[in-house]
Design brief:
By secondary structure, the chain is α+β, with helices and mostly antiparallel strands. It has a domain of about 150 residues: Thrombin, subunit H (Beta Barrel), CATH 2.40.10. It has two helices and twelve strands; from the N terminus they run ααββββββββββββ. The strands form two sheets. The protein has a six-stranded antiparallel beta barrel with strand order 1-2-5-4-3-12. Strands 6-7-8-11-10-9 form a six-stranded antiparallel barrel. A hairpin with a 4-residue loop joins strand 4 and strand 5. Helix 1 crosses helix 2. The termini are far apart. About 5% of the residues have low confidence.
Amino acid sequence: MKEQPRSAHRAAAPIKSLAHRFVYSGLVIGVFALMLLGKADAVLMDRFRAQISDAIAPILGVLGQPVDAISRVIASVRELSSVRQENALLREDKEKLLRWQAVARQLEAENKSLKKLLRYVPDLGAGYVTARVIADTGGAFAQSLLLNAGAGDGVGKGEAVVTGAGLIGRIAVVGNRSAQVLLITDLNSRIPVIVEPTRTRAILAGNNSERPGIIHLPPGATVSPGDRIVTSGHGGAFPPGLPVGVVASVSDSGIRVQPYVDRSRLEYVRVVNYGLRGILRKSLPGGDGGKRGDKKP
């Protein structure tokens, strides 16, 4: 029983060898036949190649999709890296622009303040110093400002402090590098003024509020809201005609004046020396009444 399979295997071996030879020979003959056919009929070969290409194209398309996906991912990563670098550069540029914007806004504000000062032109015989307001020392019991110019810059005690809108006060205390301004709203401030429409003389008295009052009016004087108030020049403290404010209200409790100058918006002021000694004797340097140039703060 065991010898029959062995004998069958031995009989099949020559058949397999012969089949392999025929297959090899057949392939060689087929290749030569295709070559001859290709030379003999080019149109037929082109069709055959086209059919093979049509059959292979979908396979190549499917195989190429992962490669395309990987290429797109790599391109996206490179683009993302480039975007990050550009974003970092844009942030730096933004910070620089914001710093320049802050500087530009500060210069614009200073320019506007200085332009307002140009509205007021002192008399030819008056000297002046332009100073910056560096502190508002006012409170419930005092109304004053601190300037960054003092006796070393030619500022003298008692001199008028004005802006383009009008009078804001006078120099009360002078240091070498700073000066303190007593505002017209201070309780200790007394300024001779004129009610312009009627040319009535009076005294503008500060009361530590935003609206000082008018006192010492002559009997029968008429004052109406909207009347313009200017300095009278009496007493030798201020020259005549400096704008002060307008009458805001007239009532039994008194007459209130709205100053032209808004104290909360003061940045630059002009300290003017009119050469007037009057009731205020100047004991510190800078009160000689001479001409002075404009000091840049």
